[in-house]
Amino acid sequence: MPHAENGSMVQPTVNGEKPSSQFIAHVTSYPAVADSLDAIENNPYGKKGIELATEGYNKVVAPVVPYAQRPYGYVAPYVQKADELADGGLTRVDNTFPIVKQDTEKIKGTILDLAFMPLRMASEGKDYLLATYSNEYKKCGGNGYFAGGKAFITTGLVVTSDSLSWLADYLNQKKEQGKGFAKEKRDAAKEKTGN
Fold first, then answer.
1. pLDDT tens for residues 132-141?
2. Alpha helices in the chain, H assignment, sequence order
3. Dist CA 49 CA 71 (whole Å)
């Protein structure tokens, strides 16, 4: 009986090693994915789900596998090419987003930092404004509405001055970078033309 034979649909077993997918091996090499798989395997509900899936495979799919070997032989090169393309896509993901290769805890920390960045910046901005207002209120020397109003106006002026100063520094930095980039391009063009 063909279903009683042990065999692999992909390729025959060589030296006791079963062939595997480059894509699946690449995905499972990511620390976050590996940690997730470990968590599922160590969870009682995850274990039960894996047992049910294995049992379903053994009862339904495994008996049909030998009958599908011949048709699979026709599509095997395409499956292998798709696997190579998918693995190449993951390599591009690795190069574009190197954080995926980082430890799971580092990824969690980075995501939390990015998620809470607006709140942190708002809190820092509020602290800056309150500290500036407090300093200006002390400089106005007095208690009351007039001193508070004067402190409010001078706080606005100080914040505007600080913002414009920061913007000028940022633009000067970008201007210097632009000059360096333009000089590199100009030198490259001169070398190319031979002048």
1. 998 888 888 7
2. 22-28, 31-42, 44-56, 65-96, 104-140, 145-193
3. 30
Quick count: other Cβ atoms within 10 Å of Cβ 187?
Answer: 10
Strand, coil or helix: 14: strand
28: its two tokens: 């499972």
Which two three-digit tokens encode residue 84?
A: 């190579």
Closest CA to 132 of 98, 165, 155: 155
Answer yes or no: is pLDDT of 2 > 80.
no
Q: In this structure, what token pair is assigned to residue 152? A: 């409010």
Contact call for residues 47 and 41 (beta carbons, < 8 A) = yes
C-alpha closest to that of 8 among 55, 83, 76: 76
Q: Is the pTM for the entire model greater than 0.70?
A: no
Tell me phi and psi for residue 8, to 5 degrees.
-115, 140
Number of C-beta neighbours around residue 26 at 10 A: 19
* Residue carrying the six token digits 């896509």: 89
How far, in Å, CA of 32 to CA of 101, rounded?
8
What token pair was written down for 11? 């390729």
Is the CB of residue 86 less than 8 Å from the CB of residue 23? yes
